[in-house]
Amino acid sequence: MEEARHKAISEYVEVLEGMHVPDWDALPDIGLYMDQVISYLTRLIEPYCALHEDQKITPSMINNYAKANVIPRAEGKKYSQEHLALLLMIMTLKKSLSVQDIRTLLDERAGEATHRDQFERYRKILDIASKSVAEEIRAELEGLEGEHPAEVIRASEKLRDLALRLSLEGSIRSLAAERIIDLLR
User: What DSSP string describes 95-162?
Assistant: First the structure.
């Protein structure tokens, strides 16, 4: 496999393996203004999400989540730990779920759990999921190095197959999540 490609994928696997979302108590406990929220959240999720222009956190995005009742409205233009935790969860879930599904999933009135409890559960599950994907990619990378043109082509095909499998699994898992969320409504 091309050295640069192998290195880039290996670095991403390391990011996944080292993924860490702070626990509730490590989130800022003073009210943050919108620009501070955006800066804080961007620093936390950028390594995992490879933020493209359409995935960047914006004030209008946050305001839309408040209008859709996915997060509470700001308290005097300031955002709390609860806001930060919810926004972190939303930013990682929005790739696979609609805003309505996320609202249903995070609605603390629908269950016994507080947003703090939900966030701690989210952190544990995110840790397991990121390490699982990293392990899967690392296993596929083993033995893909080679200088011979046939080996380079084979490595490229295996990477395409891996990307296709990960994409299809993501789609199927998203559909399954939507079905389960529909049952929770």
Answer: TTS-HHHHHHHH-GGGSS--HHHHHHHHHHHHHHHHHHHHHHHHHHHTT---SSHHHHHHHHHHHHHH
State pLDDT tens for residues 39-60.
Answer: 999 988 876 666 455 568 899 9
Query: Cα(101)–Cα(182) distance, rounded to whole angstroms?
Result: 8
> Who's near 173: CB < 8 A, 6+ residues apart?
96
Token pair for 106 = 């995070």
Angle between the N-to-C axes of helices 34-49 and 59-67, in degrees from 0 to 180, rounded to the nearest 10 = 100
> pTM to 2 decimals?
0.84
| CA nearest to 51, candidates 38, 63, 62 | 38
Smallest CA-to-CA distance from 96 within 177, 179, 12 is with 177
The residue that leads in pLDDT, 18 or 51, is 18
Separation between Cα atoms, residue 89 and residue 55, nearest integer Å: 14
Q: What is the mean pLDDT of residues 162-171?
A: 92
Whether the predicted pLDDT of 140 surpasses 90? no
| More confident: 60 or 12 | 60
DSSP string, 59-72: HHHHHHHHHTTSSP
